[in-house]
Amino acid sequence: MVKIIVINNYGQTCHLIHRAARDLDQEVELMKNTSSIEEILEKKPDGLILSGGPTLMRAGNCSVYVKELDLPILGICLGHQVMAQAYGGAVRTGSAGGYAAIEIEIIEENDILKGLGPRTNVWASHADEVSVLPPDFIRLAHSRICEVEAMKHRTKPLYGVQWHPEVSHTEKGNELLMNFFRVCETYRPTT
Q1: How far apart are CA 101 and CA 37, in angstroms?
Q2: Tally of domains in the chain
Q3: Which of 2, 74, 166, 172 could form a disulfide with 16 if both were Cys (CB 3.0 to 4.6 A apart)?
Q4: DSSP, residue by residue, 114-183
Q5: Can you state the percent helix, strand and coil of the chain, rounding each to 5?
Q6: Does the annotation count 184 as an active-site position?
Q7: 171 φ, ψ to 5°?
Q8: Is the confidence at residue 190, as pLDDT, over 80?
Q9: Cβ contacts of 38 within 8 Å, gap of 6 or more
Q10: Residue 161 forms beta bridges with which residues?
Q11: What is the pTM assigned to this prediction?
């Protein structure tokens, strides 16, 4: 069991992430995206999940978290986009728009996508999406409508997925979350 903090970015699935982690027998707590680094560290988490949300403008301190916390972090949808932008990538309005089923092609199963490939069906919103992979990140998955469906930092335990592993419409969503929890279990901070 690991302790996970879910950062609430005011998305409609934030509580589903919390419940999915709890249902997978993890210790989990919700925190506002305006929480300070110190408030997060006081909780002694093993990892962070940045939830989806309506807009980058309401992502609070998420870009600070991904740059300054030495913890495994999984960005989901908006969290994925915040991570990309914080590290020099780009986000644009997607051509496919709102929530829909999409087939993902996994390029590299590294860490969080282990056992999910070579293809999987997911539930995702492409109202906004990562359009330019940040330097020092590896693209892990793409689809016919988006080139950066999933990514990982080359050296830090930072992961982003455009889709929602916490919803029942996503195949193997629990497997992705469990893969992330295993990363959290084995990660040792560099300091």
Answers
A1: 35
A2: 1
A3: 166
A4: TTT-SEEEEEEEEEEEEEEPPTTEEEEEE-SS-S-SEEEESSSSEEEESB-TTSTTSTTHHHHHHHHHHH
A5: 25, 35, 40
A6: no
A7: -70, 140
A8: no
A9: none
A10: 76, 150
A11: 0.96
The pLDDT tens digits for 95-104 are 777 788 999 9
Residue 116: what residue type? L
- The CATH number linked to 180 is 3.40.50.880
The answer to whether residue 191 is domain-embedded is no
- Per residue in 122-137, pLDDT (tens digit) is 999 888 999 999 999 9
Please give the Cα distance from 116 to 173 (Å, whole number): 9
Tens digit of each residue's pLDDT (9 = 90 or more) over 145-161: 999 999 999 999 999 99
Rounded Cα gap, residues 162 and 48, in angstroms: 16
Is residue 169 part of the annotated active site? The answer reads no
Return the pLDDT at 191. 61
**pLDDT tens digits for 39-90?**
999 999 999 999 998 888 889 999 999 999 999 999 999 999 999 999 999 9
C-alpha dihedral sign at 66, 25, 178, 127: negative
- Write down the catalytic residue from 14, 62, 77, 146: 77
Point out the catalytic residue in the list 80, 129, 149, 166: 166
The dihedral of CA 51, 111, 126, 67: what is its sign?
positive
Is residue 126 part of the annotated active site? The answer reads no
Domain interval for residue 102:
3-186
